[in-house]
Amino acid sequence: MTDFLKADTNLPSYMMFPRFLLDMKISETAKMLYIILLDRARLSQKNESWSDTDGHVFIYFTIESLAEVLHKSQMTVKTALAVLEKQELIFRKGQGPGQPNRIYNTMITFHRQ
Question: What InterPro entries does the record point to (predicted)?
Fold first, then answer.
């Protein structure tokens, strides 16, 4: 059964969609990927062991796991990650052979005119 939303309706868990993504000319997959990474980073904010020595919050997320969450191929995920990195929405830092990359989310502020 479907109910209408009311003032006291409990909402299911959700992910935030930063409004600046609406103005970006990137694929919907890249946008969804950024949202997923940002959601994971919000959890890392609460745990001090997920920040580097500069206080920057990072996450670990394997390509395989991201592909599973997005229901996309690993190649599609790699392409979307490259787009996010090119747009400076994320930064990836290698940790050495056989180690996953640290993924840092960045926040961009757009000023509407």
Answer: RepA_N, WH-like_DNA-bd_sf, WH_DNA-bd_sf
Q: CATH number of the domain at 39, please.
A: 1.10.10.10
Distance CA 80, CA 28 (A): 9
Please name every residue paired with 59 in a beta bridge, in sequence order, or none if there are none.
103
Range of the domain at 36: 25-105
Per-residue model confidence as pLDDT tens for the chain (113 residues): 678 988 998 888 889 899 999 999 999 999 999 999 999 999 898 887 899 999 999 999 999 999 999 999 999 999 999 999 999 999 999 998 888 899 999 987 655 54
Provide the domain count of the chain. 1
Cβ burial, residue 77 (10 Å; 0-12/13-18/19+): buried
Q: Are strands 90-93 and 102-105 parallel, antiparallel or unpaired?
A: antiparallel
Amino acid at 95: Q
pTM for this prediction = 0.86
